[in-house]
Amino acid sequence: MLNTADDDGHISMYLCVQLQHLVTDVTCVQLMDLFHTHQQQQQPVTSSQQLRSAAAEAAYQRKAEQLLSDENCFKLMLVSCCCYLQHFTFTVTVR
User: Rounded to two decimals, what is the model's pTM?
Assistant: First the structure.
């Protein structure tokens, strides 16, 4: 028989450890700073600005990848259309 109180305690402890890592790890903090900077620079895109917007997105991705170059990480991309999951990509990078 499972003791859900113990399971909930372990889950809560695991979540606290993960949150502590997110707010104190140098790479995580740098990624959040990069994200906030990128979000502040974003503007509504018209069709004539799409190429420039794509270049800005590519530059943002390159900077994020540089920050993560020493990390063992994975990337999830979810693209939805009309509330249905349309595309799922899972890539694992091991260094």
Answer: 0.56
Do 72 and 93 form a contact (C-beta atoms < 8 A)? yes
| Three-state secondary structure string covering 28-48 | HHHHHHHHHHHHHHCCCCCHH
The DSSP element (H or E) to which 85 belongs, if any, is: strand 84-93
Q: Looking up tokens 């979540």, which residue turns up?
A: 15
For CA atoms 69, 73, 74, 77, give the dihedral sign.
negative
Proportion of the chain above pLDDT 90, given as a percent: 15
Q: How far apart are CA 83 and CA 30, in angstroms?
A: 32
Bridge partners of 84, per DSSP, are: 81
Q: State pLDDT tens for residues 35-48.
A: 999 888 877 766 66
Q: Could you give the C-alpha distances from 6 to 10, 20, 71, in angstroms and in order?
A: 6, 21, 32
Q: Phi and psi (nearest 5°) for 46?
A: -95, 170
Q: Where are the domains of the chain?
A: 4-70
